[in-house]
Design goal:
This protein is of the alpha+beta class. It is 40% helix and 16% strand. Helix 2 runs antiparallel to helix 5 (106-123).
Length: 187
C-alpha cells in the first residue's frame, strides 16, 4: 500500500501527551504544510497562532472548562466535570487557526490546513487532536482578552484548534470503528 494512504488510515486523535515540547524543526515542518493546503480562490486568508506557553494553555483550559460547565448541553457539562479534564488535553503545543471575516469559505480552508498539519505531524511521530472546544473561549468576554494576548489579527474569527505533542508512551487506543456504507457510485 502507498505510504501516505497507510499513514492517513493509521492516524488517530490522541488526547494524552508527554510533557515535552516538540522540536522546533518538526514544528516548522508541520507549519510549512499548513500553507500548502488549497484555499478558496487562493485567498489564503487564514492565520495560525502557535501557543507553547504552558501557563497560558492552562488559563485557556480553565476558561473553556468553566464555560462548558455552564453549557445547556449535558455531554459538555459532564466532560467539564471529569477529574483532570483539560479541553486542550495537556498538549505542549496548541495551534489556533483563524480566518479573516471576508474569506469565501473559511471553515473549509482552515480544515484543509489542519488536515495537512495532522498528517504531517503523524509522519513525524507527533500526535495530534483537532479540537473545537476553543469556541467556548473565543465566544466569551475572557476570550477577547486572550485574543489580544495571542496576537490574533483584528478581523479574524476563530475556526479550529490543534493540540500537538509526543504521545504518552505505551498509549493504547481503542479500535477504530468507521462506517463503510457511506459511499454512493454513479458510473
Amino acid at each position: 500500500m502507498n505510504q501516505t494512504i497507510a499513514l492517513i488510515q493509521e492516524r488517530r486523535s490522541v488526547r494524552s501527551f508527554q510533557p515535552i515540547q516538540i522540536k522546533e524543526d518538526e514544528l516548522q515542518a508541520i507549519l510549512s504544510t499548513a500553507i500548502c493546503a488549497p484555499t478558496s480562490v487562493n485567498q489564503q486568508k487564514y492565520h495560525f497562532t502557535v501557543l507553547q506557553n504552558l501557563e497560558l494553555i492552562h488559563k485557556i483550559d480553565d476558561i473553556i472548562k468553566q464555560r462548558m460547565s455552564n453549557s445547556p448541553v449535558e455531554f459538555l457539562r459532564n466532560q467539564a466535570a471529569l477529574p483532570g479534564y483539560a479541553p486542550l488535553h495537556h498538549a505542549p503545543t496548541v495551534i489556533f487557526i483563524t480566518s479573516a471575516h471576508d474569506a469565501e469559505y473559511p471553515a473549509i480552508d482552515c480544515a484543509l490546513a489542519a488536515e495537512n498539519m495532522v498528517i504531517a505531524a503523524a509522519s513525524l511521530g507527533i500526535a495530534s487532536c483537532v479540537t473545537t472546544s476553543s469556541f467556548f473561549l473565543f465566544d466569551s468576554e475572557a476570550g477577547l482578552e486572550i485574543r489580544s494576548e495571542l496576537g490574533i489579527p483584528e478581523g479574524n474569527d476563530y475556526v479550529i484548534a490543534l493540540a500537538l505533542g509526543y504521545p504518552t508512551e505505551n498509549l493504547v487506543l481503542p479500535p477504530r470503528n468507521r462506517k463503510t456504507d457511506v459511499f454512493n457510485f454513479i458510473r
